Amino acid sequence: MIAEQEKLLQTYFGYESFRPGQKEVINHIIHTNNTLAVMPTGGGKSLCYQIPGLSLNGTAIIISPLISLMKDQVDALQALGIPATFINSSLTTEEQRTRLRELEAQRYKFVYVAPERFESSMFVSIIRRIPIALVAFDEAHCISQWGHDFRPSYRSIVPQLKQLNNIPVYVALTATATEEVISDIQSMLDIGAEHVVNTGFERENLAFHIVKGKDRTSYIRSFLQEHTDESGIIYTATRKQADSVYEQLQKRGISVAKYHAGMSETARKQAQAAFIHDECSVMIATNAFGMGIDKSNVRYVIHYAMPMNIESYYQEAGRAGRDGEASDCILLFSPQDIQLQKFLIEQSLMDEPAKQNEYKKLQAMVNYCHTQGCLSSFILDYFNDTSLKQNCGRCSNCVERLEKTDITEEAQMILSCVKRMGERFGVGMTAKVLKGSKDKKLMDFNLHQLSTYGILSAYTEKELTERIHFLVAEQLLATEEGKFPTLKLNHQSVDVLKGKRSVTMYTAPIPTSEEADYQ
Ligand code: ADP
C-alpha cells in the first residue's frame, strides 16, 4: 500500500523519497489509526496528512491556529493542482458562504480552518453530512494545557468532533512536545503508544550559542555588520523591547522590519511580506511572529532576551535553517531577564497550578543559560530525546576556548552559606550574604550575623549569582519551585561539602580586542 503513497510523493510533490518518520505516520493514518507525529520544524509534517488525505476517500479537515499559515498551505496545494481552500475570519461573509457551499458539494480535498470555526453550527452540520477523510490538528501542542501555547478553543472541539461519528481518523502534529504534552494529546485523541511517531528533535544544522555580559545592542550591531547579506530574526521578550531595538538599528541605517501584536494588521502584514520576500533582511519581533511562517533561508535567530521556557525557545530558534543549511541560534542572556519573565508569568491570567508549572519551566530555561555542558544535548534531554549520543560539537559551550578552573572551595562556601541561611532564600539574597552586602532586607533578617557573611567578598555580586546559577544548572544545588525559588541542598551538595566531589567551572574566555570594544 505504501508504494502507492510513494508514487503520490513523486508525482504530486516531486520528491524522491520520504523523510524520517513520514512513511510510518502515513502508514498509520491510511490504516485509520489515530496518530501523533512529533517532528522538528522543517521535518515535513504537512506531507504526513496531505498524502493520506489524497488517498483516503472524502475531505480532509485541517485545524490550524494561525490564519497566515493556512493561506500559504492552500496556495501550495492549489499550485500542485489539488483542490484546497481555507475558511476563516479573514474572508467576507459572502466568500465564507460560497466556500461552505462548495465544501458541502464535496469539491475540496483539503479544507483548513481555525478552531473557532467549530462555533458555527452551519459548518459543523456540513461536516456531519459529508464524507471526511481525516481530521488533522496542526501545532497540536495547543490542545494541551501543559503546552506552551495552550488554546482552550482547540481543546473544546475534541468532544464536539467525537460526537459527529463520521471522522475515521485523527492526526496530531507538533514540533514541540514534552512527555506530559504527548500523553495529554494521546488521551484527548485516543492515540495508542504504538501510533506515536517521534523522530527526535535534533537539528544538525543549528549551532546554539549563549552570550552573557555583553551590551546587547552593540553585540547585535556588530553581528549584523558581519552578516549583511543574510536573513535573520531578532526576538525580544516584550513589544517595548522590539520598538526600542528597531529604533536603534534603524537610526544606524540598517534595513529592519518589525512585528508585534501592538501594531495594526496592515503594518504587520507589510512587515511580514517584506521579510518573506527578502526586501528586508532583519525582522525584529515578539513571539507573535513566526508560527507557521515558512521562510526557509533564515540564517540566524537572535534572542535579545531569555524567553519563558525551552519549548518556546526551541520553536523560535528553530525557525532558522529550515532549508538544512548551517545556521546560528544566539541567546543574549542578562540576569534581569529572569525577573522580567517572572513578572510576565505573575501578570498572566493563568490559575495558580498553571503558574507553578510555568515557574518550573522557567527554571529549566535559566539552567540552560548557565549550563556548561553541550547546549544541544541540554535541549534534547529536556524533551527526553536520547538520540544524541555525544556532544554536538557546534554550540558555544562545545567550541569556545575556555579555561577550566577548580571552584570546589567557592562551591563549598556557597553551599554552607545556603545551609546557614536555613535553605529559605533565593539566589539574589544568597549572593548578597556571600558578598557582605549592607542590603536592608538582609539586615532585617539578621543575615549579617552569619559566619558566611562576606566570605566571598572578593567577588562581585554578579559573579556570585553566576556561580550559584551554575551550581543549580549542574544539579549540585536544588531549587524549590515557585515564584521565588529558594535554594536547598541535595545529595550532590552534601558530597561537595564533604569533599567527596570536586567542582570545575569554565571561566569566561579572555575577550579579543574587538570584543573588548563593546563591553
Ligand atoms: P514542518 O511543518 O514539519 O515544519 P513542512 O511540512 O513545512 O515542515 O516541510 C518543510 C519543507 O520540507 C517544505 O518545503 C516541504 O515541501 C519539504 N519536504 C517535506 N517532505 C519532503 C520530502 N520527503 N523530501 C523533500 N522535501 C520535503
Automatic annotation (TrEMBL):
Native species: Oceanobacillus limi
Keyword Metal-binding in annotation: yes
Biological process annotations from GO: DNA recombination; DNA repair; DNA replication; SOS response
Domain Helicase ATP-binding: 26-195
Protein family: Belongs to the helicase family. RecQ subfamily.
GO CC annotations, alphabetized: bacterial nucleoid; cytoplasm; replisome
GO molecular function terms attached to this record: 3'-5' DNA helicase activity; ATP binding; DNA binding; four-way junction helicase activity; hydrolase activity; metal ion binding
Domain of life: Bacteria
Protein name: DNA helicase RecQ
Required co-factors: Mg(2+); Zn(2+)
EC number: 5.6.2.4
Domain Helicase C-terminal, chain residue ranges per copy: 215-366
Catalyzed reactions per annotation: Couples ATP hydrolysis with the unwinding of duplex DNA by translocating in the 3'-5' direction
